[in-house]
Amino acid sequence: MAIQPIRLFGDPVLRSAAVPVTDFDKELRTLVADLTETMLDAPGAGLAAPQIGVGLRVFTWYVDGQTGHLVNPSLRLSEDLQDGPEGCLSLPELSYDCKRALSVVAHGFDMHGEPVTIEGSALLARAIQHETDHLDGVLFIDRLDREARRAAMKQIRESDWFGAATTVKVSPHRTNGLGL
């Protein structure tokens, strides 16, 4: 297990769709451990593999004192909505109200390839939707209304971290040859 550098807004990996996991092996278990350790160190409520430069459909979460992970997720969203503050480890110090489904049923696999179903509402539903968006190359600011997105982009451009040269360690995890 190792804490990995978190990619920041502007890194192309954050806008690329991740590929499905096909090998449920030791390398995947190491990736899940690295994601979990990095997320808890940050600290954050979730972290997707692309955020550490790995283009695979895997994410972790930490909500209400519980950690979990999901591989190759597919979501069924409620029609009821919630609106609340959302942030992202790849967009430091940003928080904006974002509309999300109030509850979610997520199907996928654990790191051993066993099928799992996760049902969640409120913050867990928000985290699962947010991290699944990362796997599709979508950031939470993409879901903001025009005025909030404009304010977020202004805040990003004025931040100390935006556009700064970052040293990114090459991830030890396989990326299915995509260089992500």
TrEMBL record:
The record lists Fe cation as bound by 88, 130, 134
Might you give the EC number(s) for this enzyme? 3.5.1.88
User: Reaction(s) catalyzed by this protein?
Assistant: N-terminal N-formyl-L-methionyl-[peptide] + H2O = N-terminal L-methionyl-[peptide] + formate
Q: Which co-factor is required?
A: Fe(2+)
Classification via SUPFAM superfamilies:
Peptide deformylase
Q: Name one GO biological process term.
A: translation
Q: Does the keyword Zinc apply?
A: no
Pfam families from the xrefs? Answer: Pep_deformylase
Entry function: Removes the formyl group from the N-terminal Met of newly synthesized proteins. Requires at least a dipeptide for an efficient rate of reaction. N-terminal L-methionine is a prerequisite for activity but the enzyme has broad specificity at other positions.
- Give the protein's recorded name: Peptide deformylase
Lineage start:
Bacteria, Bacillati, Actinomycetota, Actinomycetes, Propionibacteriales
Corresponding gene? def
